[in-house]
Every structure is written in C-alpha cells, then in structure tokens.
Amino acid sequence: MADVVLRNVRKTYPGGFEAIKGVDFAVGDGQFCVLVGPSGCGKSTLLRMVAGLETISSGEIEIGGRVVNQVEPADRDIAMVFQNYALYPHMSVYNNMAYGLRNRGMAKPEIDARVQEAARILELGTMLDRKPRQLSGGQRQRVAMGRAIVRQPKVFLFDEPLSNLDAKLRVAMRVEIRKLQRRLATTAIYVTHDQLEAMTLADILVVMNGGQVEQIGSPLDVYARP
Ligand code: ADP
Ligand code: ADP
C-alpha cells in the first residue's frame, strides 16, 4: 500500500542552484530502496523532499497512492532516522521513544505496548531508564530507530544513519537494519555514499550523480554492468 513514486521531481535552491534535475523512480510496497552516489549529488535533498522537510520546486511525490506535495510532514506517515540520531539528551530511552506518540495524544497503554515491542526487537529492554549519554553509539542508533518504529509508519527514511559509527559496528548495524525492515515489511528509502552498504541493503538501487539518476536496478544489475 505504501509505494513511493517520484515524477519529474526538481529542486532549485533559493539562489538558483539546481540540486535535483528531474528525477523519476518508484519504490514498491515493502521494498528497500537505496539512494547512492558521491557527496553533493542530491541524495539528502531528495530524501528531505520525500519527508516534507524541503519543498519541491516542481514534479510530484506520491506516498501510498496520495500525492504529498502539499501534505504536512506530520501527515505523510513516514518516519526518518538521521545520521546524528537527534535524541533528546535529558530524556530516558523510554521517553525518547514515547515522546512523539504522546504528542499525538496516543493513550498510555498503546504507547507502552509499542515502546516495549520496539525495545524487544532492538534489544533495548534493559536500557529503557538510561539517558542517551549512558549508551554506546550503536545503542543510541538503535534508540533512534526505535523512535521511528513505534510510529508504525508506512515508509522509513534513513539519512546516512550509520556514518557516525566505527567500521565494525557499521557492518553489524547494517545487518540489523535489513533484518528489521524484512520483519516489519515496511517500505524504506536509505541514503548512503558507501557502495558496499548500498549493495548489501538494496532491493532497488538508485545511483545518483549531479542531481540526476544515473542508473537504477537491483544491485546485481547495476554493479554487473561494464
Ligand atoms: P548529498 O546528500 O548527495 O551529499 P545534498 O542533497 O546534501 O547532497 O546536496 C546537493 C547539492 O545541493 C550540493 O551541491 C549542496 O551544496 C546543495 N545544497 C544543499 N542544501 C542547500 C541549501 N540549503 N541551499 C543551497 N544549496 C544547497
Ligand atoms: P520523566 O521523569 O522524564 O518526566 P517519567 O519517568 O515520569 O519521565 O515517565 C513519563 C511516563 O512514561 C510515565 O507515565 C511513566 O510511567 C512512563 N515510563 C517511563 N519509563 C518507563 C518504563 N521504563 N517502562 C514503562 N513506562 C515508563
């Protein structure tokens, strides 16, 4: 139900720089799509437009059959995981995950059930009372993912979520993210400049360069090409 479709999407930043020059692609329901390409090619801009954090200059973005160009970010049914985690430092792990749900006026038993379930999946069950500073980098990143999971979104968006972790942890978390996405069967769009990460994670790979899509296909299709 949550296909994401981009039709001739463009972005010109104030000042006139054309960061996205007419991008078309579709991500099927439950697919894991990775946007890959060199720094500055427009990956983050594109993701932020899907999230509603950046206006689109022209074209159309559709999520779950609904054109979202004018839909407020909060009503898009997406959840985003950022590179810097963006956790609230003064709140417990539990409250970091519960905060957004409380703001939406969700009833406490439902919030509690969702947080407990996310904590179980992410193996954070014993950490719920800790503050972010009492966690390792990998644990913090899992809390950031927990905060996205509890919203039960139609689409997960990831903006280089592992790039602050050391190499070993990055590999481990990559595996975790993939397992998690399979298990939740949620559509995902994941931004990275790391080719290996892209290849490991993607059902569908969108290779970008200079604000355009250069190649699109399965990792095998894309990397097997001469
Ligand atoms: P990537 O995520 O692939 O590194 P970005 O989407 O962050 O690329 O940036 C794409 C291009 O748009 C870059 O040249 C960047 O400098 C430019 N850019 C990003 N944000 C802005 C902005 N707010 N104003 C003007 N130019 C921007
Ligand atoms: P703070 O002290 O940061 O304001 P609280 O500890 O008072 O936050 O928690 C706010 C709400 O979240 C309370 O209703 C509390 O019952 C619930 N809560 C907090 N931690 C947990 C936890 N580990 N398990 C279940 N509920 C929790």
TrEMBL record:
GO molecular function: ATP binding
Keyword Methyltransferase: no
Keywords from the UniProt entry: ATP-binding, Cell inner membrane, Cell membrane, Membrane, Nucleotide-binding, Sugar transport, Translocase, Transport
Top-level taxonomic group: Bacteria
ABC transporter domain: residues covered: 4-226
The family this protein is said to belong to: Belongs to the ABC transporter superfamily.
Function of the molecule: Involved in beta-(1-->2)glucan export. Transmembrane domains (TMD) form a pore in the inner membrane and the ATP-binding domain (NBD) is responsible for energy generation.
Name of this protein: Sn-glycerol-3-phosphate import ATP-binding protein UgpC
Organism: Rhodopseudomonas telluris
Location of this fragment in the whole protein: 1 to 226 of 364
